[in-house]
Amino acid sequence: MIYNFDEIIDREGNRAAKYDERKKKFGREDVIPLWIADMDFKVARPIIDVLKYRAEEGIWGYTSRPASYFESICNWKKERNGWEIEKELIGFSLGVVQTLASAVKILTEKGDNVLIQTPVYSEFYDMVELSGRKVLENRLVPKEGEWHIDFLDFEEKAKNSKLFLLCNPHNPLGIVWSREELKRMIDICIENDVYVVSDEIYEHINFTEGGHVSIAGIDGMYDKTITVNGVSKAFAMTGWRIGYIGAPEWIAKGCTKLQGQVTSGANAIAQRAVITALEAPVSKIQFMIDKFHERRDLVLQLLGEIDGFNLNVPEGAFYVFPDISDFFGKTLNGVTINNASDFSLYLLEHANVATVTGEAFGNPNCIRISYAASEKELKEAIARIKAVL
Predict the structure, then answer these.
(1) Which residue has the higher pLDDT, 144 or 148?
(2) Spatial separation of the C-alpha atoms in residues 293 and 180, rounded to whole Å
């Protein structure tokens, strides 16, 4: 069934209602939240309608995963990524983070090394270390506005790792890894018997001509890859907490079994609504991707007008990760800036703009700015930043 997704509209006005919440969190009014990956788009009306219908129908009990849920994911992967996956190889979860954490526990033991490329989404560190595993960092290298892989270091770290956590498109850098780069990483992983967990939650928010390349679809990696995804970013369903996994059957079953002992299962009603989202043509969410592309260009233009912001051009997701180390050692309005954390706090205190320190992602020279906010908020926030710098 094809649903009408044309009713998805900006919900800029709804964000005003969040100011009370921000006041409680930050102790002040009128904070513009550029720290969070929460989008300003409504969930499509057909998804809401299904949610209401299923709730009234009485689907409130413990979840039994509907076959159509798995079929929708399989069809989506075939259409979007061009590779086949069987229903038996699909698992589901309460979002990407839980699935990533489960995969780490299934594929490694305490004391094992897990390879990650830094800077990266902060919870990659947490889920590894809280599980009693050790992080090995392959530091991405900034050069002339782009970030590059140190493949010699990657190969050395892979020799001593059991698992590699990949983020593609990348949070916070916005990198979309090319097929050639992925193939080179894959060859190293295969040679060293390293499994790959690929976080692809931003796959649809992609501004490259070639589009997203899912690592499991590359020769040699199908049986050694755990693909993790969900609906939070592509369909603006961040609070619905539904993710899914595509993996070899023993891994998919292991993650499902582990989840059963931790959270029982994902939201029963939301599962049914997700089917509606995944059955929609990919073209129905293109307007949102186009809007993010416009906002990216706007943010790069405005930040580029501020001395001291050294920018890369993200190709996907909805973040910029500027190097702001030119401000280190300087005193602004009586505040000495020693690091990215000082800089983020300064912007919060003096500009009422909330960002995230790069230290959380493994790079103390940068901050992360989300352009998932409305165009109006982005213009206002950057004007404030410019004024206090």
Answers:
(1) 148
(2) 24
Does the pLDDT at position 340 exceed 70? yes
Structural domain count, the chain: 2
> Has residue 333 been placed in a domain?
yes
Neighbours of 353 (CB within 10 A): 25
β 163-167/113-118 pair status:
parallel
- Segment 360-372 shows an average pLDDT of 95
Residue 70 main-chain phi, psi, to 5 deg: -65, -40
Contact of 222 with 86, CB cutoff 8 Å: no
pLDDT of res. 99 = 84
For residue 255, give the nearest of 216, 228, 223, 222 by alpha carbon. Answer: 228
pLDDT band at 16 (very low <50, low <70, confident <90, very high): very low
pLDDT tens-digit series, residues 34-78: 998 777 777 777 788 878 887 787 766 776 555 555 666 666 666
Residue 165 lies in a domain: yes
Same domain for 346 and 225, yes or no, is no
Check residue 247 and give its pLDDT.
82
The alpha helices in the chain, defined as continuous H runs, are: 19-26, 45-57, 67-81, 96-107, 123-130, 151-158, 179-191, 249-262, 268-278, 286-303, 340-351, 375-388
Are 262 and 317 within one domain? no
- Cα-flanking dihedrals φ and ψ of residue 174, to 5°? 75, 15
Do 84 and 156 fall into the same domain?
yes
Task: Look at residue 7 and tell me if it is in a domain.
Answer: no
Q: Is 373 among the domain residues?
A: yes
What would the mean pLDDT of 364-385 be, rounded to a whole number?
A: 96
Enclosing domain of residue 188 = 46-280
On whether both 251 and 299 belong to a single domain, the answer is no
Are 353 and 329 in a shared domain? yes
- Do both 264 and 321 map to the same domain? no
- pLDDT of 283 > 50? The answer is yes
Enter the pTM of the model: 0.86
| Residue 8: closest CA among 269, 226, 289, 308 | 289
Question: Taking residues 93-98, what's their average pLDDT?
Answer: 79
Task: Indicate the residue among 280, 295, 324 that finishes a domain.
Answer: 280
Same domain, 136 and 263: yes
Rounded distance between C-alpha atoms, residue 313 and residue 302, angstroms: 13
Q: Are strands 163-167 and 195-199 parallel, antiparallel or unpaired?
A: parallel
